[in-house]
Amino acid sequence: MTATRPHAALAQAYDGITAVVGDLDDAGLQQATRCQGWLIADLLLHVLGDAQRALVALASPVDGPADTDDVSYWRDFPAGGEGASRHAWWVRRSAAAFDRPTGIVGLWSETPPAAVRAAASANPEGYVTTQGHVLRVPDFLATLTTEAVVHHLDLTPALPGAPPPGPLAVRVAVATMDGLLSDDTVRPAAWDDHDFLLKATGRLPLTDRDRLELGESAGWFPLLG
Questions:
Q1: Which of 58, 55, 49 is nearest to 87 (CA)?
Q2: Could you tell me how far CA 110 lies from the centroid of its own chain?
Q3: Is 225 part of a structural domain of the chain?
Q4: H helices within the chain, ranges in order?
Q5: Which of 31, 44, 165, 198 could form a disulfide with 158 if both were Cys (CB 3.0 to 4.6 A apart)?
Q6: pLDDT for res 88
Q7: What is the pLDDT of residue 80?
Q8: CA of 9: how far to CAs of 56, 81, 165, 193, in Å?
Q9: CA–CA separation, 158 and 36 (whole Å)
Q10: pLDDT tops 80 at residue 2
C-alpha cells in the first residue's frame, strides 16, 4: 500500500466521483460509461455498493493473519471473470428500481463520507474480512481506492469537462497495476497514469506499438476486469 494515509487516498477517490456526478440531472446520469451496458447511474450504484461493503467490513474487525493483500486480492477478479455478466444485469435492474436516477446520487452523497470516517477510525494494524478474504485494513482501503479510481475514469467518456481523479488516489491504483505486472515490465513511455489504468483494465486496447514495447508482458493484459 503506497499511501501513508490510506483513508486519505480513499477520501480523495470518493470525492472525485462526487465531483463528477454531484451536479448531473436525471438525463446526465443516463449517459453511457466505459462499462458495457451501464449508464452513469448504474455504475454509481455499483460503486455505492463498495462504500456500503466498506462500512460493514470496518465495523466488523476480525483476527488475522491476512490471506491476501492489496495486489493479490485482484487475482480473484480477472477480466471477463465468471459472474460478471450476472452482476452487471443485477446492477442495471437495481438502478432501474429507483424512481429517478438522482435518487442514487442522494444515497451516494451520504455513504462514502461515512465509509471514509470509519476508515479513518479503523485500527491500521487491524484486519477485516470481505469477499471471502481477510486483509489488513490499509490493504482493504487500497482495494477500494483502486476500484473507485478506475470507475471514476469509467464515468467520464460522455463528460469531457469532468474533473480527473485525485493524484493520491491515482498513485494507489497505479501501484496496484504495477504489482500485478512482472517485476521486469517497463511501462510504455507514451503512457500517462490514466492510459496505464485504462489499458491495464481493458478499457482501452493495446496498440501494436504498446505490444512491441511490452514484449511478453503484453500477454498479461488486461490485468483485471
A1: 49
A2: 19
A3: no
A4: 6-21, 40-58, 84-96, 102-121, 137-155, 167-180, 193-200, 208-214
A5: 31
A6: 84
A7: 61
A8: 19, 27, 10, 16
A9: 14
A10: no
Q: What is the pTM of this model?
A: 0.94
* Mean pLDDT, the chain, integer: 93
1 within domain boundaries: no
Which residue's entry shows cell 466521483?
17
| DSSP code at position 166 | P
**pLDDT for 46-99, tens place per residue?**
999 999 999 999 999 999 999 999 999 998 876 665 567 788 888 988 999 999
Residues pairing with 130 in the sheet: 133
Amino acid at 125: E
In this structure, is residue 210 part of a structural domain?
Answer: yes
The contacts of residue 162 (CB under 8 Å, 6+ apart) are: 19, 20, 155, 156
The CATH number of the domain holding residue 114 is: 1.20.120.450
Q: State which amino acid sits at residue 87.
A: H
Number of domains present in the structure of the chain: 2
